[in-house]
Amino acid sequence: MIEITLLLNEKSEEPLYFQIYQHIKKDIISGKLVANTRLPSIRALSSHLHISRNTVESAYHRLIDEGYVQSRPRSGLYVVELELDKLPTLHSNKRKPVELIEPDNAPIQYDFRYGDVDIAHFPLATWRKLTNLSLQSEQVELFSYGNPQGEHGLRVEIAKYLYDSRGVNCSPEQIIIGAGIQYLLNMLSSLIGSTNSNIAIEEPGYDGVRTVFRNNGFSTHPILLDKDGINIYKLYESKSRIVYITPSHQFPYGMVMPIAKRIQLLKWAQDLDGIIIEDDYDSEFRYVGKPIPSLQSLDANQRTVYLGTFSKCLLPSLRIAYMILPPELIALYNKQDYRLYDQTVSWFHQKTLELFMNKGHWEAHIRKMRNVYHKKQSTLIETIRELMGEKVTVIGENAGLHILLRVHNGMDEKELIRAAAQKGVKVYAVSHYWEKQTQAEASMVQIGFGGLSNEDIVLGIHSLFQAWF
Ligand SMILES: Cc1ncc(COP(=O)(O)O)c(C=O)c1O
């Protein structure tokens, strides 16, 4: 058995147990403590370091939980074989392996990543059954590339669903299916790009989309937001004839554009013979008030391109999104040989989704997930209010799978993220959502809650509280 000697700092903000845990973990990772080394017993270490047994016990528990050591019955605790030498970077840089693991940070226990979805409620058994069913069909598509625009049956289901839920008026012939919104916007960019090279984008807005337009040669014009969404006056001023917008749930701020502003926006499109690109990415998750009809459904002049995705309500890994083109653009799509572009979404997934929608599972799933996420969101906001009160401002709590948190403790974005990581919590930067960095909020982070359980949300917010206040 080895002896463990370390200098404990009684005055540190880190509890003693955490200092012991960190010390042993570092020694294991750096190879100082090799596999199968037996750790001192709780009694021996506590008397050696003159600390309580509970403190040693807590440190050992954490090491066990994280898999660094293992208990062997009637024998004690042993260092686990980590096979670190199989990691090429660690192997080739044996003297400094610890740096790669960021020793200052606790391992991430609570990841508030926006984009993660609830795993526990995904209807895996139904999905498996329907995938199987789709494979049993004897259709020739099973053996071919499939329809370039997306399977007709799925487009019929999407058109039905959008008419019922969002008032969207379209025929299946106007729908193009593709592997994600960025892919579809790439296609749209080349469709409309030859005549227009300026595009207005909400500031802040989704940087994943801004990049796509830029890479397609567009100049982007960031348009600041009012409390109720994009500033229409500034939109006119920008002289752009195209705008990309998230009216149902502004990304990332989360405001819902009221009907009066939607009408102003449609008037703008009419005045300039412009195009509105409406991204309705998470319209299923509205927790407060009645849903407002989509812009597309209000647009008598048919100037709106409507986009939606199955990434939020179903699974991001499916990579299924759709774009609804107004008649003028679908005519262009047909004329410019886009039919030669092969479909990017697998036929199996499309067919499975069609069956999922057609047999009523989709509606039921949305209802269920709306409740699941509403509960998570309430837990998140209640815990934040209870612990942090006036020390923070919560933004965007009426809808969606994320919120923004403005933190009033003097830390900037980087410091907030770093302090959180040191307590084992991952929260995310928002400054990249601003095209003009000077306008970005200084002390704000993004908190996604879709992928965490209610229990982890509570525990994660408690850790954040410790990290920041
Ligand atoms: C505003 C917005 N639109 C679209 C998407 C992504 O959609 P997809 O996964 O279909 O590309 C996201 C994802 O984060 C988003 O925030």
What key phrases describe this protein's structure?
alpha/beta, 3 domains, 17 helices, Aspartate Aminotransferase, domain 2, binds pyridoxal-5'-phosphate, 469 residues, Aspartate Aminotransferase, domain 1, Arc Repressor Mutant, subunit A
Please tell me about this protein's structure.
The structure is a single chain. With 469 residues, this protein is of the alpha/beta class. The chain folds into 3 domains: 16-99, Winged helix-like DNA-binding domain superfamily/Winged helix DNA-binding domain (Arc Repressor Mutant, subunit A), CATH 1.10.10; 110-120 and 364-468, Aspartate Aminotransferase, domain 1 (Alpha-Beta Complex), CATH 3.90.1150; 124-359, 3-Layer(aba) Sandwich (Aspartate Aminotransferase, domain 2), CATH 3.40.640.10. The chain contains 17 helices and 15 strands. Strands 4-11-10-9-8-5-6-7 form an 8-stranded mixed beta sheet, with helices on both faces. Strands 12-13-15 form a 3-stranded antiparallel beta sheet. Strand 6 and strand 7 (229-230) form a beta hairpin. It is globular, with a radius of gyration of 27 Å. The protein starts with 15 loop residues before the first helix and ends with a helix. The model is unreliable at 87-103 (pLDDT under 50). The structure holds pyridoxal-5'-phosphate. Residues 115, 180-182, 206, 246, 251, 279, 281, 309, 311, 316, 321 line the site of pyridoxal-5'-phosphate.
